[in-house]
Amino acid sequence: MSHARRRRHTSTRRLGLHLAPILAVVLCWEVLARLAILNPTFFPPPSVVVGVTGQLLVEGPLLYHTWVSLRRILIAFLIGATSGIAVGLWMGWSRPVRLIVNPYVSLFYPIPKIALVPIMFTLLGVTETVRVLAMSIAVFLLVAVNTMGGVRQIDDAYIDAALDNGAGTLALYRDVLIPGSLSEIFAGLSLGLGVGFNLIVVIEMLAAKSGLGYLIWRSWRLFTIQQMYAALVMITLLGIVFIYGVDILGNRLTFWEAE
Amino acid sequence: MHTDRRYQMLSLVAAVLAWQLAVGVFGVIDPGVLPPPATIFERTLALLGEQSFLGHVSATIERTLLASVLATVFGVSVGVLMGWNDTVKALLGPLFSAVYPIPVIALLPLVVLVFSTDSNALVFTAALGGFFVVMWNAMNGARQIRQLYFDVATDNGATSPITIFREILLPGSLPAIFVGLRLAMNTALLIVISAELLAGGRGLGYYLWVSYQTYSLGDIYATLVVIAAIGVGITYGLRWLGDRLITWTPAETERPAEHTFR
Amino acid sequence: MNREPPKAFNEPDSKATAMAETSYEASATGSPCIRARGVGKTYSSRSSEVEALTDVDLTVYDQEFFCLLGPSGCGKSTFLRILSGLVSEYSGEIEISSARADGGSVTNMVFQEYGIFPWKTVLNNVAFGLKMDGVRKQRRHERARSYLEKVGLAEFADAYPHQLSGGMKQRVAIARAFTNDPEVLLMDEPFGVLDAQTKRNLQTELLSLWSETKKTVVYVTHDIEEAITLGDRLAVMTARPGGVKEVLDVDLPRPRTRGSIPTDEFTTLRERVWELLSDEVQQSVTR
What we know:
The complex is a heterotrimer. Chain A is an all-alpha fold. Chain A has two domains: 1-41; 44-253, MetI-like fold, CATH 1.10.3720. Helix content of chain A is 82%, strand content 0%. Chain A is built from ten helices and no strands. In chain A, helix 6 (128-152) packs antiparallel against helix 8 (169-207). The two termini of chain A are 25 Å apart. By secondary structure, chain B is an all-alpha fold. Chain B has helices spanning 2-25, 37-48, 51-84, 86-99, 108-114, 118-143, 147-155, 161-199, 204-213, 217-245. The radius of gyration of chain B is 22 Å and the shape is globular. Chain C contains ten helices and nine strands. In chain C, the strands form two sheets. In chain C, strands 5-6-7-3-8-9 form a six-stranded mixed sheet, sandwiched between helices. The chains are: A mainly alpha, B mainly alpha, C alpha/beta. Chains in contact: A-B, B-C. Chain A: One of its GO terms (cellular component) is plasma membrane.
């Protein structure tokens, strides 16, 4: 009981220590903007930003654009992550598959994925599918490469031990390959999210009539800076939810790894 | 290992050949949609012969390099400092963690407002994206240096922070920094191309967007080839360089993991 | 060349029985080099306090090979780190007489897990301490090379540590310590992770380097036979919190090469130390 309470106590403390520097910066910004040392047109005080965001969420189009972006990110991420993990595991385990697939993955992996977008638009048209597909390709490549690396660094002794104890293919994947490469898989997911978020924003800025990227771009064009900040707040919130959600999930699943 | 690489090259060559045959000879796919590789290659060479196109290439490379240098200088110093000193980490870590999830490209309009010139804004945005990657990697690199090495240094009379940085922190985190550098240059390139697509003016991204708008399929493919070549050059060039410079790590298996944050 | 144990002159009659004397402050002579009085150390974290060392009284004499023997976790490494200055907060008093006038370092440590930098070549590792003292490159490399030769690693000067075996790595660490030329050499279970054969070879090499250079050595180990083979005197420590249980003279002739150590005396002493230690080991296990 007391042990649990103490732990909760220290974790609130840690959260407080974590929030303190952030609050300090936000407070500085507020004061500097109020005193007009920071140009309040470009840097409206945080209190104003929060107010505008709330107002636009309730009355304006912000909720709709957030929902559109969220849907795109979610679908693209799920497609890219599942296919990336599957192909990565397979490439890591089977040498023939690696020999056939890896050259393409290593060729496309370093290409800035945004450069593929104009071609995809040309070939497939400017459709919702293409917008989502572009992000899922980025996630797929990063996850596949990392997962393959994760499988290949697994100590042969574990695989030998599993086979010696009568593990079949399914058991090998479930009990050795997946847990053994889990932290690399999550590193790939995290990298993929970072790149994928940028991609979806660029695509929405370039070729969409909805989504937070579109809203940011239009606000900039119309010089409605406060609305732009509101959209930035929402995309940041989405980023926090996805990136730290994946991070927390990864830590939960790899709890057995020593610090 | 070497036979592996040979098989993989073979797989690529076979695919290119099949593509050439399918489009160029048998006409399975409309060459107006997907030109055969030989045609793309020709167009790429032709473009690279044009002075104006080379200007776009050099603009993109210049911006990417500049952004990467900025990202590296600040990323390494801040990251190593955070990895070494817990107080610095406690102060800066939460700030960076809070800002990190923002897709950097979303900040481009804001940065353009602050910087009056597009080109500076573009480099700054790309540098910002790269900074985070280098910083997390340098920090983790510095944190994984064993306490033993600091003890040895102290015991042998290394006292000033500069000496510790030069003799222990920097070389000790160098493998991780190189991983960060590679990721940072790729991030910088992605953001430079994205920003050029959006803000235009000069650069391969801009050229790509114009080609798309005018439906010049050959130019789109050729530009993509050049961009891909830059990306591949960065990734494998830096990997090669890292292997040459860091001769003291035992094997490929002990390469540091790619870190994003925390 | 071969150094006589200092006490042999004073007590010519002392044999195995005399060694077993429970003289707390043992009978070696010479001028004291290290004097520890009531040294204690408590590690405190937010939730708890652990007393690692308590009330350690020791005197180590000039040019003596002194072994600290104790069960694992008894704080013998902590004591060494206090002597080296790596641990600066402790209770009690430590006095290290610094006779030298050239301003060189007083102590230098050889760590259990090699402590040689993977990112430096063997030569640069050996010359590291001199570099920190501002010795010119040519001169420090010269000195480093001469000690590399003495430990038989001359041709590995430009290799990196990952290309060396465990024994070779520890030779590099020893070469660095001697290159630094400190007054007191502190060795923290330097051969603890090596295989038996390598360990024996390195012990012989260490003894020959020591008799050449006449350093004062404080050598931490949990291996009884090693302590008897190497030391002039040895201190048996108690389980945590560590204190000195007893200090014994090792009155065996030098040079102690394999076969030259009288078996009877060795065995008697080993049994005596084993008895002293077994209680402590038991305690540290049941804790």
